[in-house]
């Protein structure tokens, strides 16, 4: 039984943890136990669970995008099925995604992006509290999976915590780091893959990766894009607001966090030559690369505008002629799903789970080839009939994707299987 293996791992199995944090595993456990005794704030409050009600705990690190939206979707669907749901996440995520408004309990756990002895000990202590009475723990992402496993590892020492509680980990992202950070991430990946009772991959390449790392059970767990609320503006009004006195100018839209994975620098390279129609490239999103991108746009006088964080994505899509995804890697890109459902043609790099997501309903180009990316955008802007055909094909392809209800049903079936197995 995997829960027994979880409890019986030797210290040698955690040598990488000491390398990463500089703190012995024993001290980490002592600190988290002390935190269990000393801390009494930020605990979730809710009525006692009903007898026989399935109790699921979600765990995630800080999120401003797809992972948080996915967890909210699952929480809302599971609560509607009568499941008791607790969401463990850092401060700010509940106000951003509204987990508690779904009927789930929110339990504040500050899971930092990188390892830290004291912060991780505090997080493990909070997770132990949240896991009390849980039937399934479902972590989203590598850090969340790692700390959840460490919390369950010592479950037998604490009343109400069961060491046999199944651990599910959803892998949402490929590891793209380099150098020493890449080595540490590989060790973390292997540790989490082998500790989990089930690994769900958001795309087929993530499932294959989990199996390579030694996961005993790895399956595809598609992430459905939540339905977008209707936009406030029609196409003409949306374009007028964005373009001012040039409402006929073609709009090339990109949406995402301004981080290295999204490769917006590649899109800037492509923007140097997008044809005689003089399109404008609009990038919606915030992130650490904003200053560098803004400097390039100004220095090179590129036809690109950084819009910052936007909550009016439906209106942006209504104004767009083409949506571009220039990423180094994506799983089931929510931006691609939203664009195709809205009937906006997509040009994307052929990476990760994008090809299986879009089929023949989008234009795919090799990653890193700015010339190919620019040529694909120019071609679509010059051919209205082709754009219309791709828009129709995108809507048809979107009908083949699992929706939120199907995703929730799949996950719930998986939980039932794991609980019976344990």
UniProtKB/TrEMBL annotation:
**What top-level branch of life does the organism fall under?**
Bacteria
Q: Does the keyword Lipid biosynthesis apply?
A: no
Question: InterPro entries given for it?
Answer: Glyco_trans_4-like_N, Glycosyltransferase_grp1
CDD domains, per database record: GT4_PimA-like
One Pfam family this chain carries?
Answer: Glyco_trans_4_4
Is-annotated flag, keyword Glycosyltransferase? Answer: yes
In Swiss-Prot or TrEMBL terms, this protein is called Glycosyltransferase family 4 protein
**Annotated keywords:** Glycosyltransferase, Transferase
Q: Which residues form the Glycosyltransferase subfamily 4-like N-terminal domain?
A: 65-220
């Amino acid at each position: 039984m995997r829960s027994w293996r979880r409890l019986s791992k030797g210290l040698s199995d955690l040598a990488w943890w000491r390398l990463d944090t500089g703190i012995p595993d024993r001290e980490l456990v002592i600190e988290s136990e002390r935190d269990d005794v000393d801390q009494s704030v930020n605990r979730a409050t809710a009525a006692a669970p009903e007898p026989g009600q399935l109790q699921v705990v979600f765990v995630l690190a800080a999120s401003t995008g797809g992972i948080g939206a996915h967890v909210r979707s699952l929480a809302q669907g599971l609560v509607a099925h009568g499941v008791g749901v607790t969401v463990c996440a850092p401060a700010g995520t509940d106000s951003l995604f509204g987990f508690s408004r779904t009927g789930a309990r929110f339990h504040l756990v500050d899971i930092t992006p990188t390892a830290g002895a004291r912060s991780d000990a505090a997080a493990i202590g909070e997770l132990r509290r949240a896991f009390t009475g849980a039937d399934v723990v479902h972590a989203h992402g590598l850090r969340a999976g790692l700390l959840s496993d460490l919390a369950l590892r010592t479950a037998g020492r604490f009343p109400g915590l069961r060491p046999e509680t199944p651990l599910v980990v959803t892998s949402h992202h490929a590891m793209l780091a380099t150098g020493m950070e890449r080595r540490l991430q590989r060790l973390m990946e292997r540790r989490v893959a082998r500790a989990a009772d089930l690994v769900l991959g958001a795309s087929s390449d993530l499932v294959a990766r989990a199996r390579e790392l030694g996961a005993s059970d790895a399956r595809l767990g598609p992430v459905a894009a939540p339905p977008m609320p209707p936009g406030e503006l029609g196409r003409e009004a949306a374009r007028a607001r964005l373009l001012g006195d040039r409402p006929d100018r073609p709009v090339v839209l990109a949406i995402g966090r301004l981080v290295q994975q999204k490769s917006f620098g590649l899109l800037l390279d492509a923007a140097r030559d997008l044809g005689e129609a003089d399109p404008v490239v609009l990038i919606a999103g915030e992130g650490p690369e904003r200053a560098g991108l803004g400097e390039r746009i100004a220095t090179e006088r590129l036809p690109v505008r950084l819009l910052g964080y936007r909550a009016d994505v439906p209106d942006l899509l209504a104004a767009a002629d083409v949506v571009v995804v220039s990423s180094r890697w994506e799983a089931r890109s929510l931006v691609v799903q939203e664009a195709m459902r809205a009937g906006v043609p997509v040009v994307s790099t052929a990476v990760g789970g994008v090809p299986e997501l879009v089929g023949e309903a989008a234009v795919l180009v090799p990653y890193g080839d700015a010339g190919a990316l620019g040529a694909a955008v120019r071609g679509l802007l010059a051919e209205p009939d082709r754009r219309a055909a791709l828009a129709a094909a995108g809507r048809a392809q979107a009908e083949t994707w699992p929706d939120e209800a199907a995703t929730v049903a799949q996950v719930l079936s998986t939980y039932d299987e794991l609980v019976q197995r344990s």
